[in-house]
Write a structure and sequence with these properties.
With 286 residues, the chain is an alpha+beta fold. It has helices at residues 12-21, 24-48, 63-77, 125-130, 133-136, 148-158, 167-180, 224-229, 231-239, 268-271, and strands at 81-88, 95-102, 107-109, 113-116, 118-124, 137-142, 144-147, 190-195, 198-205, 210-218, 244-248, 253-257, 277-279.
């Protein structure tokens, strides 16, 4: 929708229509409502799959219970689920599953404001059956954060009925950060993600040791200076038939953000060796 990553073509006309129909307060309510509903589902999930073994891990020993468990986790994350991929193992029903979702509450950060985190979780059914807790489930939190204003602007300007579809824009950005940059150290203080119809603003944050997606600028509403600033980026996108890219204004450097295929994108081995994701240890599988 914002780019070729989202089906259905350009939504430029819809952006304008939605901004006429929806005010900032309504967009805020959409985001807060989605977060609140996810928070309310926690007690039910915890009760259903409360750890019952001596090690404190849930006993998931059948295909039916594992599949039910994954279904419940997906329901728990609800509208905050931004990415889901299942890899079926050859000649077996066993699965490896990758889920990414937004946090169900904001974190207030001095000098930054309210930000949402991105969680990336991996589930391996075969390892659950073997009782290998460390291999069965891993949970990472990204160093790419979404500012409250960014989430509200995405809802306001892209016409999303919820916020889950934001992942179809945000997840390729996270994946490309992992692929192309070892840390924030050598990145410019602020830079941009340029898409066919909009520009997203990224800013370094020392207090978070990461990057914050701050807001969204619509291409159709650029002023003359913005058209000049992003001219080279749009020429490059036109040459390659659309998509997204990082644009660094001081150096004029551009880095393509690749389209994502339906595969396990951020493998556990990759997550364990990248600055952009850090392991979050939990005593319960969520």
């Amino acid at each position: 929708m914002l780019t070729a990553y989202l089906s259905g073509g350009s939504l430029l006309a819809k952006y304008v229509a939605m901004e006429c129909m929806m005010h900032q307060s309504e967009a805020k309510a959409v985001v807060k409502g989605a977060m609140r509903r996810v928070g309310h589902r926690w007690d039910e999930l915890e009760t259903t799959f409360r750890p019952v073994s001596e090690s404190g891990s849930p006993l998931i020993k059948t295909k039916k219970k594992f599949l039910r468990y994954i279904d419940e986790v997906i329901k728990f994350r609800g509208e905050l689920l931004i990415h889901k991929v299942t890899s079926q193992q050859r000649n077996s029903w066993h699965q490896k599953i990758e889920l990414a979702s937004l946090s169900s509450e904001y974190e207030d950060v001095d000098g930054v404001g309210s930000v949402a985190k991105i969680s990336v979780c991996f589930y391996d059914s075969r390892q659950f059956f073997k009782g290998n807790q460390r291999s069965a489930y891993t949970h990472y939190v990204s160093r790419l954060y979404l500012h409250e204003h960014f989430l509200e602007r995405m809802v306001l300007r892209s016409g999303l009925s919820g916020i889950g579809e934001i992942g179809r824009v945000v997840y390729p950005i996270l994946h490309s950060l992992v692929d192309n940059f070892t840390s924030v150290r050598n990145l410019e203080e602020h830079f941009y993600v340029v898409s066919d119809t909009a520009v997203m603003v990224l800013e370094k944050s020392d207090s978070l040791s990461g990057l914050v997606l701050k807001t969204v600028l619509l291409r159709e509403r650029f002023d003359d200076l913005q058209y000049e600033l992003f001219d080279s980026s749009y020429k490059r996108l036109a040459e390659q038939g659309g998509g997204m890219l990082f644009f660094f204004p001081s150096s004029k450097r551009m880095v393509d953000i690749l389209r994502l295929d339906n595969q396990l994108l951020l493998q556990k081995e990759c997550c364990a060796n990248t600055f952009w994701l850090h392991n979050l240890l939990h005593d319960f599988y969520v």
